[in-house]
Structure formats: C-alpha cells, structure tokens
Amino acid sequence: MTVICNPIYSSHRSSHSHSLSPSTEKNRVLPAPNQPIAKKMGGDISVLDQNILYICNKMHSLKTKLSPKEFIHAFVISAEPKVSYLRRHWAQPKGINSTMALQEAIKILQSEEPPRGNYPVGGFHSSASVNQDFFTLEEKEAHSTQLVKHMPFLYKTLMGILNPNNMVFPVEPEESPSSKNNNPEGAAREDIPEDIASIAYEDSHQGPEGHHRRLETVVKTICAMVAFSRNRRNNGLQLHNAVRFFSCGISKRVQEYMNYIGLSSSRRTAVSGLKTLAKEQSKKLKSIMAKSSNLLIRPTICIDNIDMEERVHQISIGHRTHTFRGTWGYMHLPDQKLLATLDPSELTISAYHQSLEQVKSMELNPTMFLPTLPEQEHDKKVWKSQIAKVLKEQIAESTNEDLSIPTSPPEIEVISHAAPDLHMLKLMDAFDNSDEGIGQVFESIIQQTGLTGDQFFAQLQPMDGDLATIQNFNCLRNQRAPSSVPEYCINNIVFQLGASHTLWNISSAIFSHHIGDPSNMLDCGAWQHLEALGFAAHKAIQKKDFTLMVNQMERIFEALLCYCLMVKLDLNLGKLGEERLKLPADRWNSTVDEVYDSYCTSRARRDAVEAKNTKLSNTLLLLHDFSTVVEAKRSMKAGDVGRLIPTSGLHPTSVYEEVSPK
C-alpha cells in the first residue's frame, strides 16, 4: 500500500477560520493555496478534513516533529504488536478483483489432479513392473488423454494462451497422385510412425496441422510437469523420458536437471526400468525360440560389432577411459503373410545344401550380368529423376509438375511398410573379429535363446552380418571340417550380407578410388569437391562412420549435377539461391534431357575419352559411380528392393566373390 501525503505548512490564514475555536485557530496549520487538501462542501470544510488537519497539527506540535509521510510509513512497517493490532481495521470484506480471480483460479487448479494409485486406476507407473507396451504410441496417447481429462482447466487455459484467437486450422486439399509422385520426401514423412517422428531429423507434420500438434504437445507436457511436481507418483511422461534419455546416452548432469524441472525421472529409476525390461525381453526370447520348431523358418538373427567408449576427463588410478568392444544383435521374426507364400519343403537344411550343390554345376553366361532393355530404360529414368531433384531443390520450380519429369524414379517392388517384429539380444562381451570371437558370440546367442546345442543346430538358422563376420564364421567352420556332429560342423547356419554393410563397403572402395591425393594441389580428385563444400577431405572415409561417407558422396554428386544444370541454364554462382526460377514443363524437361545427354550417358563418357579431356572424363566417371551409390541409398530408404537389386554399377570385389555363392 502506498500513501502519498505531502502537506505544505504555511502561516497564511484562511477566510473560513471562523468555524474553529480561537484556541484551535491559533495553532492550526493551513495548506498552501496551490495544494488544497480539504474538499469543500457547501462552503464549509468537511468533518473528515477537519480531523486530518487536527492530527497534522498534533504531529507538528510534538518535540520531535513527525511528518504525515513518516507516520504512515512507520505505521505500515512497524512490528510493534500494539501497532500491528491497530492495523487490523484495514482488512476489507472483499479483496481486489484481480486477486479474487487469481485465488479462484488457484483453487480450481488445486482441485484438479489425476487419480492416485497404480496405473490404470491411477497415474503411477512403477519401474519394477514396467513393460514394453508402456512405450508404445497408444499408451503414450492414453496417458496424455488422462491428464487432459483430469486437468481440463489448466489445459484449456494454456491452449487459450498459445492460441488466443482460437484459430481453426484449414484442411489442405488432397494432392493429386502425380504431385505425390513428384514429392517422395513429403510422402515418406507422412509414412513415418508417430513415435519415430518425435526423434526424426525432419518434422513429419507440416503446415497448420503441424503447428496445432506442436501446441498440443507443449501444453500436454506442461500439464505432465505440473502433475509430477505436485505428486511424484504421476510419472508417466517422466518415466518414459528417463528410460529413453538414459538409453540414448544423455549425461548424468543433464538428466539430473531434467528431473529437477519435472521432465524426467531420476537416473536410478531409469536403470531400474531398464533392468525390468531386460528381464521381460529375456523371457520373451526364450519363448520365441521354444516355439520356433513349429515354424517354417526360424527368426533371422542379425549381429554386428559395437565399440562403446566411456571417456574420463580426469584420469586417476582405477578411473580411466574404458572401451567396451562387443557384439549386439536382434531377432527378426518373419512375416506370416510372407511365410504363407513359401514352399515348406524348400526351407529345410537338406534343401539348402542341395541348392548349394547345384551351384557348382551352374553355367555362368556373361549376358546374365548385363542389364536388360527394361533395366536400361529404368536406369535412364533414375538419372533424370536425380537431375530433376537437384533442379527443384537448388535452382527452379516447375509451373506444371504433372507434365514435368518427376524427382523420383518409378516404383518396382516396394516392401511392406508394416513395422517389423524385432527383439533385441543382450549385449555380448565377445568381439566377432576372429574365429575365436565368433565362437564366443554363438555360445552367448545359444545361451540367450534357452535352447540346447542339439536343438539350436537341428534346424536351418538364417543370420545376417557384415563381411568380416561372415569371413570369420567361414574360417571357424573350415577349422571344424570335416565333422558329422551338427554342433561342430555348424552347417545349419546360413549367413547373408546385410544391404547396408554391402553398400558401405562398396561405397568405400568407390570413394577411395575417386578421392585422389589431397597432398597434391594439382590433383583434381573428389577431395577438391569436399574442400570446396567446406568438409575436410581427411575425415571423409572413416571406418567408424560409413553413413557420413555415403552422405558426402551424395553431396559431391548433387553439387556436380547442380553445376551441369547451371551451365545449361546459363546461370552464374552469384544468382544461385536468391530466387527460384519458374520454368514451364517443356523447358524443365528439355533442360533435364540436355544434362542427361551431355554428362550422364556412356556416349558422353566415350566422347570425353576420345577428346583426351582427362578432367572431364574423370568427372563423368565419378558421376556415374556416385550415381549408383546414391540410388542404392535412396532405394533402401524408400523400401524399394526392385530398384536396389538391379544396380549394375555395384561391381563385387574379390572378397565378395568368396562368399557370394552362399
């Protein structure tokens, strides 16, 4: 409370002083003429103003004069019980309107709380009883719905703040099939599951709908934080985040901060939840493998090596950086719809060995490795789609996409978009970089499946791994041959090369061939393009990050195509990126055709060799080789095995020829 009182004392007499007694008139203090403090009513001073003047005179007559300002200030802040008791009369029967509204809102919010108890009756999720279903999208939406149901006032208030005008987001018109084909990236984003889109690099929801979903996510998160802060047993979102944060390698300090602000449970709770999930997964693996004898084919076991480093900043005795070298893997259950189309008699161990015997007498014809006419036509469409993609992303837009060359090639054989049924294996403290190590890996896998040695080796077991794993496995099998005991000869194991590993290894060989010599400035290898794009050439080929290598190859490929397009469109580098060109469909198609005919055909490469233009010839060869790698990457991302298989540019090396018959 702020009181402003600043009277000015004067010796002037007032014309209305006759209303006071002579003794009072002698000692009274009048205000200055320019600052009257008494309200005149009917020509006389009001009784209230007379009392105020009387009090001011009394304070002025004290030995230690006390101004009204000092009196009010001391009266308000004094801790003397008698003075505080006198202030009791200041209480009002009704408070300030804003305070009343605030108190009413607080009471409403305090009355809104999710029910107590264990889930699904209440909102408590125990880390000792959590299961895999808790992390599904359906459970997450059910928990959010429960929060909104029991905290409607907070939810609607926050939504009203973030969306003050109560905007109604319009529904965008449905795109034509041709426009969807021209935008495969957008179609791919729509196919991303909701629980995966939250950790994807691109937002799966764009436009007004995406904005509304973002507002809902923010509001639901705030509601969960408030519920958790009031009662730590309302921990649905927090337990979900704690397990994910810990699994993704978030630091202890960051997770403690997330727990402090109510976004995550403690790290101890996350570890307890992971142990519970590990026990559940172990039982599920044994149950699956126990039923595998009744299946046509066993689940595929995929394994790969892994290096995890626990870095220590301050090294001391017993406290040093440690690197875990082991093997991780998972089981992939076959799709029942796919199994229904297979012949059971061809999925046995005897049928598998019989097919290998037939390979020995197979006659190989060079024409078997040459592309057919339909494959050549498809390869032409692949080239033009790659050129059109760069043209659309970097330079121009087509005024009629329905009549323009699309940015993605036609589909051939797309696999099902249904989520695969995967079951993770426990990390194995065995490194598959030797025949002894791969033997330890198999012992760990058999132990986790719960089968005996006779049961595991009695049925055909498909497996997936990289090239080094298959070589080590073949070495182990050759050391144990000949043997009639299934546990020793391990002839029931059939390894297949993973698509990603195959792409990485062949891409490494192609990139190493074109990288050039970075120490020679006259060398015009691919390292020059990397440096021009702002990437250090010596970091391009790394065995620990093959994905980065493939991405850099794609960047070089698109940069070269962009330059070829700029040459045909007569554009300089300064105009690139300022404003997109608007090209009609016929100009769009003619530009793509010109670039394809001039730089992407075998005739163009042959003409460059005949003209003895070494730099152009090497650049066109680089475009040809990198195009195959880029198409393999994009076809795998699109799930089109029909586009992936006929990649005639991926030539096998001698090491792949060693394992290719099997």
From TrEMBL:
Residue numbers spanned by region Disordered: 9-36
Database matches in InterPro entries: DUF6589
Domain of life of the source: Eukaryota
Name by which UniProt lists this protein: DUF6589 domain-containing protein
Domain DUF6589 per the UniProt entry, residue ranges: 361-645
Pfam families: DUF6589
